[in-house]
Amino acid sequence: MEGRNVKDKGNTLYLECRSGISGDMFVASLIDLGANQEALRKGLESLAVDGFDIAITRVKKSGLDACDFDVVLDAAHENHDHDMEYLHGKGAEGENHAHGHGHRHGHEHERGHGHEWHSHGHGGHVHGHRGLPEIYDIIERAKITRRAKDISRQIFEVLAEAEGKAHGVPKEQVHFHEVGAVDSIADVIAAGICLDDLGIGEVIVPELWEGTGTVRCQHGVLPVPVPAVSNIVMDNHIKLHITNVEGELVTPTGAAIVAAIRTSDVLPEHFLIEKIGLGAGKREYQTAGIVRAMLIHADSGGMGTKKDC
């Protein structure tokens, strides 16, 4: 199911995911490649969703300078985003728990309180769980390009298929308690905006590196990879490499982005790198905590262009 949403073939993107991948890491890597930040901000400001702002900063990850993309939520939407003990099944007293309120798996993941959405200038609040129709409506009303909308829709469709399979319901009946939260909507649509802005056509992702252990989410303490990620990599024939890192490196949003945009898992035998972007994760594991995105083009000669001395 490779490349089912790639249009207008243009630049070739190579994603190196040896620290996993999440929505915010991916977006940050594209910003670092040069995606237009003003266009990104205007696109996200047009969403019929309240309760968030974005912050784009520089951070150090394993001593490397990287871009950080953060969806900053207000108090009504915030939860246990970066609480390591919570995410790995411990409460404030250090006791293990088997239930929770959602989190941003691994690096950025989806918050578990996506129970209402707000319409800017269209009659106030609209209450209820977010299913695909509500998500699609938010996307369609956004002031972004057609291609950015199509990419965003495809990512959410991949998520719905995976979550539906995990919970034993059709994708049309999936209510996005986690992946429909405000920050995840912003991450997915930001991904669509940046991919379109950079003119990305071909996307090469050889494999995803994942951790081990368990992680806490809306439905309890789950094994890593979580069911949605397992379903996405299975259904889309994405190669998975399990590391000895304790923690969740690949989030459902990150896996869904790869599934929606990947056109190949094979790099050219020889290629030249035009530009590199580093996108930072929010969590500290025994990895660099970055997605490395490279704009490349194949070098048929294999030795580059010979220059006169």
Topology (SSEs and partners):
Layout lengths: L10 E6 L6 H11 L3 H9 L6 E10 L2 E10 L10 H4 L28 E4 L4 E4 L4 H10 L4 H22 L14 H16 L2 E5 L3 E5 L1 E4 L2 E4 L3 H9 L4 E7 L5 H10 L9 E10 L9 E9 L11
Parallel strand pairs: 1-6, 7-10
Antiparallel strand pairs: 1-12, 2-3, 4-5, 8-9, 11-12
Helix pairs in contact: 1-6, 2-6, 4-5, 5-6, 5-7, 5-8, 7-8
Secondary-structure element sequence?
EHHEEHEEHHHEEEEHEHEE
- Care to count the β-strands? 12
Structural class: alpha+beta
Low-confidence stretches: 1-8, 80-128, 304-309
Query: What is the mean pLDDT?
Result: 81
Shape: globular
As a percent range, the share of strand residues is 25-35%
What does this structure look like?
A hairpin with a 2-residue loop joins strand 8 (214-217) and strand 9. The chain has helices spanning 23-33, 37-45, 84-87, 132-141, 146-167, 182-197, 227-235, 252-261, and strands at residues 11-16, 52-61, 64-73, 116-119, 124-127, 200-204, 208-212, 214-217, 220-223, 240-246, 271-280, 290-298. The longest helix is centred in the middle third of the chain and has 22 residues, at 146-167. It is built from eight helices and twelve strands. The chain has 309 residues and is of the alpha+beta class.
